[in-house]
Amino acid sequence: MNETLTLIEQRRSLRSYAERPVESETVSAIFRAALRAPTAGAMMLYSIIEIADQTLKDKLAVSCDHQPFIAKAPLVLLFAADYQRWYDLFLHTGIRDRCAAEGSSLRLPEEGDLLLACCDTLIAAENAVIAAESLGLGSCYIGDILENYEFHRDLLQLPKYVLPVTLLCFGYPKAPPAGKPVPRFPQEYIHFKNNYRRLEPKELDDMASRVGRLTEGTDPAEEVWKFYRRKFDSDFSREMSRSVRGMLESWKSGI
């Protein structure tokens, strides 16, 4: 296995960081890697906001489901889907007038544009993660940035067509990670050819047992129930859905 595949295989989330700043040249290398990520039409439909102010970190540690380690991370980057930059460019170069001259109206960003921007954003984020790992840093994705949209919008001064997609914490580990990476479901449950295949009952039983092994429980059905309540039906999941609805409504509401 080559060095890159080994790095990917061994990567795990890091939530405890050494009291060591991330050197400026290392931050620059992480940004260069992110900016080289594949992107739709070379449009780079994302922005990356470095959260350097400690007060902002402290507030995000609370608003992102009360996770104190966010405030202690030496490097915190917000990856945001961004169509504002292109929309501003369209207006700046007179696209509205050119549309009017040919009898059409200026098209506004729609749902498909948002999804494409989200894809660009997450691809860039993962490039940053892999680059950081190769430089000796650990990282942790914070999906909770999808919650509390209105608060995060105001806190970070996000305009209409910029939506937070993921927050990433980076830092050097205090010690080498202990134990093995969290196991994944087997490839045959994920990898299909030519068409989607729903899992058979016996495969779902096996999936339930694997959830039990992840949580060290003994009753698979009970562990799936706990997982359902803790993750899918939790207060933070419901807030995330409410928050994302707010993002979509804002995105679609027009200027």
> What structural class results from the helix and strand content?
alpha+beta
CATH class of the largest domain: Alpha Beta
Helix amount, in percent?
Answer: 40-55%
In the predicted model, the low-confidence regions spanning at least 5 consecutive residues are none
> What's the mean pLDDT score?
94
Q: What value does the Rg take, in angstroms?
A: 21 Å
Q: Give me the side-by-side strand order of the main sheet.
A: 1-2-4-3
State the end-to-end CA separation. Answer: 52 Å
Core attributes:
255 residues; 50% helix; alpha+beta; 2 domains; NADH Oxidase; 11 helices
Description:
- There is one protein chain.
- By secondary structure, the chain is an alpha+beta fold.
- The protein has 2 domains: 3-182, NADH Oxidase, CATH 3.40.109; 183-255, no CATH class.
- The chain contains 11 helices and 4 strands.
- The protein has a 4-stranded antiparallel sheet, with helices on both faces.
- Helix 2 crosses helix 7 (111-134) and helix 9 crosses helix 10 (220-232).
- The N and C termini lie far apart (52 Å).
- The relative contact order is 0.16.
